[in-house]
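In the lab's daily routine, each protein ends up as an entry in a very long ledger. A line of letters takes care of the sequence, but it says nothing directly about the fold. The three-dimensional part falls to structure tokens, numbers that each stand for a local backbone shape. The outcome of that step, for a single protein, is printed below.
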Amino acid sequence: MGKYWVGPLTRCCFSTYPSSGSELTAEFTNLCSKGLLKQAFDRFSSHIWSEPTLFSHLLQSCISQDSPSLGKQLHSVIITSGCSSNKFISNHLLNLYSKCGQLDAAIALFGVMPGKNIMSCNILINGYFRKGDWESARKVFDEMPERNVATWSAMVAGLTQFRFNEEGLGSFSRMHELGFLPDEFTLGSVLRGCAGLRALVAGRQVHGYARKCGFDFDLVVVSSLAHMYLKCGNLGEGERLIRAMPSQSVVTWNMLIAGRAQNGYPEEVLDQYNMMKMAGFRPDRITFVSVISSCSELATLGQGQQIHAEVVKAGASSTLSVISSLISMYSRCGCLEDSLKVFLECKNGDVVCWSSMIAAYGFHGRGVEAIDLFNQMEQQEKFEANDVTFLSLLYTCSHCGLKEEGTEFFELMVEKYGFKPRIEHYTCMVDLLGRYGSLKEAETLIRSMPVKADVIIWKTLLFACKIHKKAEMARRIAEDVFRLDPWDPVSYVLLSNIHASDKRWDDVSDVRKEMTERKLKKEPGVSWLEVKNQIHQFCVGDKSHPKSAEIDSYLRELTSEMKKRGYVPDIDSVLHDMDVEDKENNLVHHSEKLAIAFALLYTTAGTPIRVIKNLRVCSDCHVAIKYISDISNREIIVRDCSRFHHFKNGKCSCGDYW
């Protein structure tokens, strides 16, 4: 259409019109619904003149075509026709500007509208939420003298969309108190809020309310209920609702898969994925994100590579959420170069992709590269970092000993970008300061920060006490930990190990006695690796593996060779009161050593070995693996509970700072 397609309002061709007014309107609306605006206007301009409310159909068609330029031309005609004071037409104009991303034009129109009503305000509230300006939306809402069900529904939906879930649930409660009955979309929004808060009790209450209002079989409500139950960890109820739906679809399969992924069942995610394909459904980008994330959790590189091939085949390799997941997956499987390859092949990445690559560098202890990438993102690509970007940077600095840089990033996040640090940001700062040895500074930060301290941040400081052998401080910090969570065995084990390092065996005995009384058990060290698409798992002192005898024999030979080269077992890292020989035997059979010995025996010479461990690598294993990498001339990549270690030629990528 040309720039000036709107002809004079007096133009008409009466010979082509149907005979009655209703037929005229029917043909006119039919043309508008098909997007034939010029034809509709040219043929029925006289009819529009006699019935100005028909402008609404033209404006609605502009929205469908996402054409604000045509809308502005119509706006000019509406002003010329003298219909701009008509509330009905003005609200349609307001709706057009709001939905077509012209919020400034919508605000200007709202400011001069002579007769604003509830619908006008509702439209502007939705417009503000679309732009992410929830504060302005709240201001319009607060200033409204009267509200209807659509007003309350818009606020509930908008607040939950921006994860102000408590406020969203509060608005829903107030809406109910005032006697407004929600529709299926409002219930869907409030259930998403319950899911975001993991508020199972509130979700059950909404479920009962939905049943009472007759929404038992509404697809929107049932889907939202299933999502809420899955997100809250009640897989049984969530899956029951999904399987009771009259028909299955890619959407329902995605909910099942995402539910398993979010609740920590990555193996079952892969099973569900295979069942989905067997049932004849084609995975989409949402499916791939969940499945790739599960491969990340399991560190199953072979399966991850297979899923990547299926992503390419399905034409989803340019989807940014999938690209970000692939970057993370390869990183967590120990293949940083493959992460970088995926990142570099992405031509139109967003801040999430860049943040994922920064996190990948940090996870592998490549602090300089992570910071360089952030500077490139900010200065060359002009992307605005988000709070997750800064979380990745702070994590990177804490694991690379970059105290000054980490402190600068924290200040940049607050002062330049205006982000309010979350508890996760403060935890990274405490980790950074604690690892660096600034324990008093870390404690001061916890006690002075504006957010409430949780057990994780106190455990982070307790762990720093263990690293730097600050037994007295550890006992004091442990009191804060146990006050918040007296049932977490990790905290007791940490304190016990700190006492053991200080040779305070009576205190060790007291802590272990407390654990026994509370029936708490230490999590055993477990390591695993993937060989020929099969997972091999090893526990400390494990004799259950079919090749256990060969592994044990080879480890003894390997230990003998290591000792010839200068290796001295770190018996101080065995935090038990036993003799030297027993301590050495204990060290030999740590799970990561068993896994590495198996890999050296049964994988091709020269190929990298990738091992995953559920706990932090102990100091003795860290030294031993450096020797093993030199003796075997193999790169050994170990992922422990917090980072990657790349052992090669007798050195580790962490520089012994971990």
Residues 163 and 196 are 7 Å apart (CA to CA).
